[in-house]
Design goal:
242 residues, alpha/beta, 60s Ribosomal Protein L30, Chain: A, Alpha/beta knot, six-stranded parallel sheet, four-stranded mixed sheet
Length: 242
């Protein structure tokens, strides 16, 4: 059985309670707080019959992280940890590949948007990526416990394996000739994004079947990686539903 994960903050804890209350083992709440956010959380815990304990700030501080007055112990789902498990039974896989995203807040936001778009997994290289930490989990607001995050030894080899499974590798790159809206996007797709500023590594870029750029109308030249991921994933989702 997976070891329970510590989840910090009102938003993240409430998201877990609403999405999967059975996975929430217990909640520790600052005994000095009695504002509206606390009342909402207490009501949600009572409805879900989740054990809630009022504790001192010192005990909450002992968990580490920016807890905002609430900490929950959450059982992890048995998420897929191998590519075969992720893709099993998926007719039109939708994947997000991150190359060089090392900031926990960016990773958390990417997991959140991937989950919202219905992506089947997020993939990253072990040597250039943030792992799942309490900070990532807090920003992801429940997505870190619901969306498979595969850290692979060799990203180029993994992309080649996806191609063998008839999944197109499409990179988002500001230097691409075609825009996101001009490109003919395949149904089975793995979107590849690099870290803001640095972008994808050369070998990763060369592994892509083709590149597209997000059309920018204003003065800014680039988007945060999680925003760019959301634009690309939801464009794929829009076309599928269309």
């Amino acid at each position: 059985m997976n070891k329970p994960r510590v989840v910090f903050g009102f938003h993240a804890v409430l998201a877990r309670l609403r999405a999967d209350p059975a996975a929430v083992l217990e909640i520790f709440l600052d005994e000095t707080r009695n504002d509206s956010r606390v009342k909402d959380l207490v009501a949600a815990a009572e409805r879900s019959k989740v054990r809630l304990m009022r504790v001192g700030k010192e005990r909450l501080d002992g968990f580490g992280g920016r807890h905002q007055g609430v900490v929950a112990m959450v059982n992890l789902k048995n998420l897929a940890t191998e590519l075969d498990d992720v893709l099993q039974g998926k007719e039109k896989p939708l994947l997000l590949v991150l190359d060089g995203v090392t900031d926990p807040h960016n990773l958390g936001a990417c997991l959140r948007v991937a989950n919202a778009a219905g992506a089947h997994a997020v993939i990253a290289p072990k040597d250039r990526a943030a792992g799942i930490t309490p900070a990532v989990s807090k920003v992801a607001s429940g997505a870190a416990e619901a969306t498979p995050y595969l850290m692979v030894t060799n990203l180029a080899r993994t992309l080649a394996e996806l191609k063998e499974r008839n999944i197109w590798i499409v990179g988002a790159d500001e230097r691409a000739e075609k825009t996101l809206h001009q490109a003919d996007l395949p149904a089975s797709i793995a979107w590849v994004l690099g870290a803001e500023g640095e972008g994808m590594r050369r070998l990763t870029r060369e592994s892509c079947d083709f590149l597209v750029r997000i059309p920018m109308q204003g003065e800014v030249e680039s988007l945060n990686v999680s925003v760019a991921a959301g634009v690309c994933l939801f464009e794929s989702l829009r076309r599928r539903k269309g």
